[in-house]
Amino acid sequence: MKSLLLTSLALFTFFFSHLAIADYDRNKAVPVEKVLFGTVISARNISQEELIEDKNSGWKTFGGALIGGVIGNQFGGGSGQTVATVLGAVIGGRIANNNSQGQTVVVRLVELMIEVDCADRQCQQYMVIQDYDQQMVFHNQDAVRMVYLTNGNVRIDKQF
Q1: Do you know which InterPro entries this protein is assigned to (predicted)?
Q2: How far is CA 65 from CA 74, 76, 93, 128, 130, in A?
Q3: Per residue in 107-130, pLDDT tens?
């Protein structure tokens, strides 16, 4: 049971981490719609919790109730044995259900408020939330670029 849960968690983490990485790969050219340059006004690290649901929780609850009923059937006699069987099934199902509620995964994100460089017109501000990258930590007054990809996604990178 634990190995199945750990395998599911590892697969979800791999799948989700692949989605959280930049929308372009290293050494691969992708079309860009536009690029805006600006300055970070505020940067805040945030986290988001996601619940990974166990798809087999119904079967686990049924299995727990079945095992609990078999164990409960070993005790008592007559109507006492019936009560013990039912009680064992209820307790077994409850324990199995509580152990298969799912796992919580914390996803690290960064919230950026960016003021776009402007010349003669009024400056605009944009709020962007993207995955946290420990190789690119943002601070106030950092010069950044907003890369608009043709698939509709936006990525913020530091100007170097």
Answers
A1: Bact_OM_lipoprot/Surf_antigen, Gly_zipper_2TM_dom
A2: 14, 18, 4, 48, 44
A3: 888 889 999 887 666 788 888 888
